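stuck on this chain:
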Amino acid sequence: MGSRLATLISRVDPLHKTRSAGRTGPAVTYTSHSSSSENRDHVMKSVWLMLALAIGWQASVLASELDRVLEQVKQGSLIEKQQADQRVKQAIGELRDARHMLARAQDKLKQTNANNIALEDRILQLQASLKQRRAQYQTQRESMNSVFKHVVEHGDLMMQRVSPHGLWLFDQSGFMAKKEQSVDLAHIKRLWVALLEQSVFTSKVLRSKQSIVLANGEQQLAQVTQFGPFNAYVMKDRPRWLRYLPSEKTWMEMAPQPTVGMDQQQMLIDPSFGALLDKQANAPTWLERIKPAGVVGVMIVLIGMIGVAIAVVRGLALRKAKREIDTQILAHQANAGNALGRVILASEKCQGAQLEAVIDEAVLKEVPSFKIGVGSLAVFASIPPLLGLLGTVGGMIETFRMITEHGSADSQLLSGGISQALLTTEMGLIVAVPLLLLHCGLKAQSTQLIEVLEQQSAGLIVIRQQADVQGGKC
């Protein structure tokens, strides 16, 4: 019996040792209340079974050993309960802490969400502001690009205007030396300075040693005097006018030279930048002007010259006759060298009633001498317009013939006939108008002289009749 009890105790001892080890050592830990309850039930069942067996097998068991076993079982159950309660409390505390942490996390999440919403609103505002700034930047950029484009165009235009006059040779702004494709503030500033410099140069007389090209093609270093952008010359035996060559950036003598003279004390300015000097140097002569008019133009010129000659000769003759008549009026003796004198001499030969007839006859003899050339001059004044019309018709016929043969594409072929048509008309009018005026003048002079003769003849008749009455003659 004693051996069986020892065997039971030995079976319980491992469990007891395990519990003791759980109580004293850190190796065994209980994680839940359910596992400790199961262990406790299992232990209780084992203990009761062991007691029943011990009672059944051996009635006399030492009370001290049973008490010890019971005490051990009670103590083990109490410790496990305490540990379970402690774990529950710990779990409740951890749950409370977890809830607090969850609440703080939720609050933090709400705050974070609110901050995120505010940040998103701020981002949207910044994006809208950025979009607006980009639009403003694009607008300002386009405006500045337009300004830069105008600057470049103005610079190019200024160079085109100034280049033909040689003023860039005196440029000190560096605009020409630093001409870039891109435009910046430095470029605009150089352009501004260049504009001011060119404005100042246009009001100055500039003198400098420059290489010029002579009329024979040779180059020579000479002192060039330049009147702003207008014109320039080189003084040799006389002023030699120059023309600026922008492509070569040098001066060249005009060929032929203008006939305009100038000394050191004068300043001649051509407001057309040399065009008037060039036009004056290449002005056509009278023969060159008449040449396009052809034969008709030559005939008009000849008729005009003949008409002018007639007008001059007859004008001088009438002036001489008028002067002689005025002298005869003041003289006491009749002179046969003038018309009035011849009329007076003829009246002295008359007797009685024949006086008036003799005087009228003498006056009629003198009248044709006063009208000589007046009718011819009228004819010559009417011929040039007709010749001009003839030249116009001939020129138009020539023009239409050229159009028929060569078409209307080449304007130089058409210009010959049109030039002849217009030039002959112009020449006819130019010649006819002065001849017509000269004719009017000669006619007025001749009419005046005839009236003087008639007046003097009438007075002479009255005087002779009074003298005859007083002398008793018929």
